[in-house]
Structures are given as structure tokens and as C-alpha cells.
Amino acid sequence: MSNHSEPTWAAESISGPPTLPVIHLNGRSPEDLLRQQRNVLRAVEALREALAAASPNSRDYYVLTPEAFVTATKEHQAELALIAAIEERHAALCLAIMKGLPIAGSKGPAMEGPSSPYMKQSLA
To answer: What pTM, to 2 d.p., does this model score?
Structure first.
């Protein structure tokens, strides 16, 4: 008998490429979007380190059942897979922002690097 409820999340629920934002006057700038995504990636790394420190240890489970440690390890691996999926999506968003998101009403990207017109205007 388990002492916890079944998880309601799964890494598969966030699979596939992320939906990319579009740059427009009422939205955030590419710089703000990039900063926010980098903050997410830093938080994911901190979470990964915390989970590594809290990984299951057989000494904490052997008194329950012989299978308890195996179950806890599988749960831990599922959490790591979910974190990896989150990291992958936000890294893809960072790359897309750096390569240049579409601008509403335009056929070109918002940024093409530090010398792009948008970057010069927003940094001025």
C-alpha cells in the first residue's frame, strides 16, 4: 500500500516544441523574454541540484518493503525527466528568441543579433 497519491503529471504532457511568442507593441521586448527564460533555466538547474541531493537512499526505504526503494527511485527518475523536459522547452525558447522571433505585421525576425535595428532602438 502506498502512502501517497498517484502523481497527476507526466513529462509527456509537455512534449513537443513550445509555442513561440510574437513581438508586438503590447507585448514584452525580446530582451525581457530572453531574461525571463534564462531565469527559468537557472531555476531549473537549482531544482536539479536540490533533487540530486534528495535522491532516494535504500537505507531510508528498506524497512517498508523490498520494493519501496525501487519505487522511490522510479519516482525520482520521473521527476528528473519532467525537469529535463521543462529545461529543453525553455532552452528552445531562449534559442528562438536569440535567433529572432516574428514581429506582428512583419515578415522578418525581431532580433538578428546585437546589431539588429530592433536591438539598437531598444538599447538606445
So the answer is: 0.71
